[in-house]
UniProtKB/TrEMBL annotation:
Region (Disordered), start-end ranges: 417-437
Species of provenance: Vreelandella maris
Family label: Belongs to the GMC oxidoreductase family.
UniProt key word Hydrolase: no
Lineage: Bacteria, Pseudomonadati, Pseudomonadota, Gammaproteobacteria, Oceanospirillales
Protein name: GMC family oxidoreductase N-terminal domain-containing protein
PROSITE patterns: GMC_OXRED_2
Entry annotated with the keyword Flavoprotein: yes
Residues the record lists as binding FAD: V240
Amino acid sequence: MAQQQSQAAPNAGLEFDYIVVGAGTAGCLLANRLSANPSHRVLLIEAGGRDNYHWIHIPVGYLYCINNPRTDWLFRTEPDKGLNGRSLIYPRGKTLGGCSSINGMIYMRGQARDYDHWAEVAGDDAWRWENCLPDFIKHEDHYRLDGGGDADAKHRDFHGHGGEWRIEKQRLKWQVLDDFAEAAVQAGIPRTEDFNRGSNEGVAYFEVNQRSGWRWNTAKAFLRPALKRDNLTLWHSTQVNRLLFEKQGEALRCTGVEVERDGQVQRAMVSGEVVLCAGAIGTPHLLQLSGVGSRELLNEQGVELVHELPGVGENLQDHLQIRSIYKITNGKTLNAIASTLLGKAGIGLEYLLKRSGPMSMAPSQLGAFTRSSAEQTYPNIQYHVQPLSLEAFGQPLHPYPAITASVCNLNPTSRGTVRLKSSDPRQAPAISPNYLSSPEDRKVAADSLRVTRRIAEQPAFARYAPEEVKPGVEYQTDDELTRLAGDIGTTIFHPVGTAKMGREDDAMAVVDSRLRVHGISGLRVADASIMPTITSGNTNSPTLMIAEKAAGWLLAERAQ
C-alpha cells in the first residue's frame, strides 16, 4: 500500500522522482499518471485532511463545505472598489480532491476559441482546441456512451468512456426551469444537446460530475486507485512552507520542498521535478513565499529574492455572477418545499431511496450561454439558473416561491492580484480580484441584466407572473445597473491566471508552453493559475485537461 506514515527522522531517505504539491483537481490526476510507472517514486502533499466528511459526497453538501474550516481555506477578498467596497468569501478546497470536493460539479470545457487563443499566446499549437480535446477525452467516463453501439457514434468524437472522470445527467427536473428554458428559446437562445463540443451557445440542463447521485471528486476518481501502488506516498494535513533551490553554475534548480508535518519541519528532495498544483491562490502564494516573484513585493515582506518573475500573482481573473431573483406565483420552487418539516423529510427520503431530488442537486441546474448584446461576436455570458432564492450564500431561503438567474461575464477584461502579506506561510495572501474595473466589464454587466429581463418577459414564463426582486425594475440606466451589479455580484469561484503561461519574451509570463517555470529547472505548474485567459465556462474540467497535458509531457521527457 502507499506510504502514509510519519517519517522518523526529519530528512532521512526523503527523495522522490516527483513531488506534487496539492492533492486537488490537478494533483490527484497527476499523482495517478506519474505513479503508474512503478519505477517512479512520487510524493503527493496536501495541506487539508482526508475527504471523509460525509457532506463532501452528498451533492447538496457544498452548502456545508464552503466556509467550513474542515474543507475550505476560508479566504476572503480585499474590499473591492468594483463591488462598492464589499469583501467576499473566496472558497478554495482544503481537503483531498481540493475544489472538486466542494464545487458545483458542473462539467464544462469552455469554447474552442479559448484554447486557440492560449496557443497563440504561448506560441505552441499543443494548446489548440483540436489538440486539447484528446486530453479531455482521455479521462472521461461519459454517460452518453454507456450503451455502446451505433447510437453513440455521434458522441465518440467529443467524449470518452471508461476513464476515471464520471459525467452524468442530473437526477432531477423542475417545471419552472423547463419553462425558463423555453423562455430563453423565445428570447433567441437556441436549445443545445451538448455544451462541450467547442461552442457552448444554447440552453440546457448542465451535466455533472456525479456517480449514481453521489459527488464524484478527483480523490475518488484518480487518487484512491493510485494509493494501492507502493511507489506513491501521500502526505495529507501537511503544510508546504517553501520550495528549495540550489545554484548549478549559472542555472537555478528546484531541489525539493520544506514542509511542516506532525509538528515537525521536514525536507523532501526531488531528483526529477516539483509540480505545483496548489491552485490559482496557493501556487502564486507558495512561489512568493519561496522567493520567486516581484522583487518589490518580496522586499516589502522581508522575503529574500531567489528569482525575479514579476508576473507571479498578477493577472487574476474570475467570473463575477450577478444574481437576479424573480418571485413567482402558480409554480413550485425549493423555497416552499424546504420550508416545512414534512417537505424536508420528503427530500431526505427521496435521496435515501433513489439518490435523486433536491439533495442530489448541483448548486445550479439549468445553464445557458448567449451574447450580452448584438455587437458581441460569440457567446460571452453564462447563466446558472436555480429553482430557489436566498439573500446571500449561507442564509435561509426566502419565504416565497422564487427562482435565481445568475449571469456572469465569461471573458472579463478586469485583472486582479494575489500578493504575499507576510513571510509566514500560514497567513493568507491578499486577494484582490478588481471586479468591474474595466469599462468593458461594466458595460457587459449592465447589458447582461437586460438579457435576463428579456428572458423573464417571454410568453413561456408569463404563467408565473414573475416579479423582479433583485436588482429591481426601478434600475434601468447603465450607471444604475452597474452600481447594482457591484451591490449584488459575487464570485462564482473560478479564479485563474496568476502564474500565466506565455513566451519567454513576455515579462509577465510565469511558465512556458510546457508549463516549466521560466528560469528555474525542475519546477512546473499544472493548475488553473497557468491559464493566460479564463475559459468561457466553469474551470474545473479545463484544469483536469491541463494536468493531463502536464503528465504526458513529464512522462515523455522522463522516457527520453
